[in-house]
Write a structure and sequence with these properties.
four-stranded antiparallel β-sheet, 33% helix, six-stranded antiparallel β-sheet, 6 helices, 16 strands, Creatine Kinase, Chain A, domain 2, alpha+beta
Length: 276
């Protein structure tokens, strides 16, 4: 069954101190190994991930169900952080002063390297190493993602890099012009970033812009489930399109956040999909 899940990273800012970015570490409970249940039901959990606050929702097979889960989690988190005078930032990137980086885990970045679908599974060069140009005198930039977990029944037969490449088509291209990540785009927001999961792939190119809007949450959910349905469809169609699509142009449009190019590519790809 096709499913969508996620583990978005949220950056927190002070509600009073000119929107200064505040670390989650030491203020909230939960770790990667021991997440804290939110009390919203099975599958809802919260944990500190570096300076960000990360959450999980149960996987869903319906966009409305997924959207309701995101809304419930975000409402819970906004109320939780407000108790400490904080609000959830809509930005995927924030500069943290040294005073917010004293916790040892604030210097821990990632645990497993991303894979690059367009390099056919080779590890990317940006994770989990610390990015040198994110370090500034007096602090450091931190970046937050809105990773999309795509589950599909053919994950044991379709090469994962093929699924990662098509994630650019179904999820990445429609985000261009809406996902305004700038600093993150140069690193983690590059096209075709994914990890292999037991159920399919985790597409890591997007920032978390979409969890702050019910409409955009619905768009991402529909596109992710369309991707899963496509991967579960006729395998000859998958192979034929993979061999024929202009991947260099797709990568360039995402890398440069070129909305006009993304629109043209989506139109062209839509015709090609109808012809195969």
């Amino acid at each position: 069954m096709a499913t969508i899940g996620t583990d978005p990273e949220l950056l927190l800012v002070s509600a009073e101190d000119n929107g200064a970015f505040i670390s989650s570490l030491g203020r909230f409970k939960g770790t990667k190994k021991a997440p804290v249940p939110m009390g919203l039901g099975t599958g809802y959990a919260l944990q500190c991930d570096n300076v960000a606050l990360e959450f999980n929702v149960p996987p869903a097979s319906d966009p409305a169900e997924f959207g309701n889960s995101i809304s419930a989690a975000m409402q819970y988190i906004r109320a939780l952080v407000s108790e400490q005078g904080l609000v959830v930032s809509t930005s995927p990137e924030g500069f943290y002063e040294d005073a917010e980086l004293r916790h040892p885990l604030s210097k821990s970045f990632g645990c497993v390297p991303d894979l690059d679908a367009h390099a056919r599974c080779k590890a990317s060069a940006v994770s989990p190493t610390v990015l040198k140009d994110d370090v500034r005198e007096g602090g450091r930039w931190h970046l937050a993602g809105g990773h999309v977990h795509v589950g599909y029944t053919t994950h044991q037969s379709i090469p994962h890099f093929v699924a990662g490449a098509f994630a650019d088509v179904f999820i990445g291209l429609p985000s261009i012009g809406r996902d305004t990540q700038e600093r993150r785009r140069a690193h983690y927001g590059q096209p075709g970033r994914y990890r292999v999961t037991p159920f399919g792939i985790e597409y890591r190119t997007l920032s978390g812009y979409w969890v702050h809007s019910e409409y955009q949450t619905g768009v991402v959910a529909k596109n992710a489930l369309r991707l899963a349905a496509f991967l579960e469809g006729p395998q000859q169609k998958v192979r034929s399109l993979y061999a024929s699509l202009p991947w260099a142009d797709i990568r360039q449009a995402i890398s440069s956040n070129d909305e006009a190019a993304a629109v043209l590519l989506r139109t062209y790809i839509g015709r090609e999909m109808g012809n195969v």
